[in-house]
């Protein structure tokens, strides 16, 4: 059998294995921060109708600029955003890949404050962008001073901020975003995949967009909207940023079916986002229960919780899996991440946690 090493593959890809969380068929899947609730039946019907209406015309390429969808997304975001300031792609992963293709690449660098979203360094790798892992402070926090000092030291072309941060769950103080924007010589990307779950009073970086053409906010329908399988992510930024990613995007990257399904889902946003408050309730229950049991837990503005296992995390991960509960080992010694899902899933997780000690 031909091995990868037999192919003339790029040197920086040699010896690597593909990234991805285990997709195991177990009763309680709380490892990828999906929304545990299936789409409500009226939304299923609406998406079905929208898809059916596209089928005859699949002989034609889709709207290359996805204008109608981007207008809908701008309307959802508010903040006075217009269609020219919003761009959509197959997940926010593709959005961030396009941003690195336009603003990173060979000879350039991207910096993130780890632990953060594990895809940021992988997207940097894939686009030939040098990755700079900057540090977070105590308890995975990040102050403006800590962030600015490292941005000044490394002068990256792209800074990734993640708020609420994955895997820790905590949203950034808006002063950190402002300070990084001030200090960074290049683009600042704020990954707000979990914005809809943030605790009251949390400020989105969308509010800072006016007058800041180097700021990009990325969002997704994968989490709060329960649309992970639909693959729809988007960004909001200065219109010039949208024109920049249009230089590197594949023509027709977003299929007619994806555009239609996402528009139908957005039209039913109230029904889809109806699960958010219940999920936030489960998240807060997980935090409170684990803390009451004496475990350290990070503050969460997301639909997941980072918690200390009270021992080796790989052993705890396996013990939970043996009881049918799949959580995420993000490689932080002593810590695991669990998604907040349905009340029954929380019960199963908390019961399985009891048996660890
Ligand atoms: C889940 C997640 C995303 C979502 O990626 P999609 O490609 O939109 O599914 C983006 N950023 C972070 C930090 C995430 O955790």
Automatic annotation (TrEMBL):
The keyword Transferase applies. The keyword Transcription regulation does not apply. It comes from the Bacteria. It comes from Micromonospora orduensis. Residues 28-352 form the Aminotransferase class I/classII large domain. This is Histidinol-phosphate aminotransferase. Belongs to the class-II pyridoxal-phosphate-dependent aminotransferase family. Histidinol-phosphate aminotransferase subfamily. Its EC number is 2.6.1.9. The lineage of its organism: Bacteria, Bacillati, Actinomycetota, Actinomycetes, Micromonosporales.
